[in-house]
Specification:
alpha/beta; single chain; 8 helices; two-stranded parallel sheet; globular
Length: about 180
């Protein structure tokens, strides 16, 4: 836990990148079983995440769905606790970080595949777009952090939501619209 706090502190001052931060957080899972985490995902979503979903964001998601748009959640977060989000909000695709399970059945503390941050988000979204025939120039991306800038730069319609100061500053330079929540 102390290691995670230190890395968060260092990240705040730009002394470590999101890859280092993500790998440090993944280390929390080392030697643990996945099932207890997966079993608590639904309760976690309904108790902590769902009540904090901004109505404006949910309404915008529903608008995209009504327009027939393919919806994709692209996040550095871990897959097991995003499944209830996907089901409840009826999101079509999930691009995220997956946990690696060792031959002993326990989590290794590493990701299975790339950690879904930075350029990896761009690459995974690009692969999905190519496979699904999605035109990224006509696509939307919603972000709240400067960590979302790489993927937001690759779509025709980047939109800022509850932005961190770093993203807000960047978005102002390019006149990116902000969704009021």
């Amino acid at each position: 836990m102390l290691k995670m706090i230190i890395v968060m502190f260092l990240r705040k001052f730009g002394l470590v990148n999101e890859q280092v931060m993500a790998k440090t957080f993944l280390g929390f899972y080392r030697g643990r079983e996945l099932q207890p985490f997966a079993d608590s995902a639904d309760d976690f979503y309904h108790q902590y995440l769902q009540p904090n979903l901004a109505p404006a964001v949910v309404n915008k998601l529903k608008w995209h769905q009504e327009q027939g748009h393919l919806t994709v959640l692209v996040t550095g977060s871990i897959d097991y606790y995003l499944q209830p989000v996907m089901e409840d909000l009826k999101i079509d695709h999930l691009l995220c970080t997956h946990l690696e399970i060792g031959s002993d059945g326990l989590l290794t503390g590493r990701s299975l595949g790339p950690v879904c941050v930075g350029k990896t988000k761009v690459n995974l979204a690009g692969q999905l777009a190519q496979n699904q025939g999605i035109d990224l120039d006509r696509s939307f991306a919603y972000g709240n952090s400067e960590l979302d800038i790489p993927i937001m730069k690759h779509v025709g319609h980047p939109v800022v939501v509850n932005a961190t100061p770093g993203l807000r500053k960047y978005a102002l330079q390019f006149s990116w619209p902000e969704l009021s929540t």
